[in-house]
Amino acid sequence: MLTQSAKDGFDTLLMQSLKTGMAPSGTPVEVSVLADDAGIPEKKMVVLTVSSYLFRLMAMFYFTPDAATRAHFARINNIAEAEMSEQTFMDAIAESGNLCCGILNRDLGNFFPHIGMSTPNVIDSNCAAYLQTLNCQHVRHFAVDMDGSPRFHVTLSVSAYADIDFAVSAEELGSDTGELELF
User: Fold this and answer.
1) Is residue 107 within 8 Å of 17, Cβ to Cβ?
2) What is the mean pLDDT of each run of 10 residues along the chain (183 residues)?
3) Phi, psi (degrees; rounded to nearest 5) at 130
């Protein structure tokens, strides 16, 4: 149901959103594709869903609640690490996932009408073992590397409810996080 061009398009748009949303402005981010999820060590994940009438996309942002991860999200949010409560830390991680999926949602809007996005949910990373029960037509695992930060991992899964074919060009890639729209 998903053409190779559509799979590449979902991958490209997610990779671009990770480069924009996972690091402080101006920090170089390298996103690479992993062969499988065997090397993903993180213990928790933030899960978000982007859906339309034609597909359901899940993005799973893995993390370990340790000092290095806390320092990264404190830096992104311009908060002193010592001032981050456990709730502030979890909110920062969820907001980073929300930002990435918001960028992805916006960019997918160039191809699909009527797209919606869920709120972030933090769950145990062992839940990813049940991903195959969703009958996904496309699953891809990514590693996200930034200077001075731990390596993060992200899994993309897409379930299609119709034939989907689209191609992403440089013009469709968002270069920033956008501005807040008021309705």
Assistant:
1) yes
2) 95 94 84 89 93 94 92 88 90 92 93 92 88 88 91 94 90 53 45
3) -100, 10
- List, in order of start, the domains of the chain with CATH numbers: 4-161 (3.40.1550.10)
pTM: 0.88
The dihedrals phi and psi of 5, each to the nearest 5 degrees, come to -65, -40
What DSSP string runs through the chain?
-B-HHHHHHHHHHHHHHHHHHSS-TT--EEEEEESSSTT---SEEEEEEEE-SSEEEEEEEEE--SHHHHHHHHHHTT--GGG--HHHHHHHHHHHHHHHHHHHHHHHTTT-SS-EEPPPEEEEGGGGGGGGGG--SEEEEEEEEETTS--EEEEEEEEESS-B-----GGGS--S-------
User: Nearest-5° angle of CA 179, CA 159, CA 42?
Assistant: 70
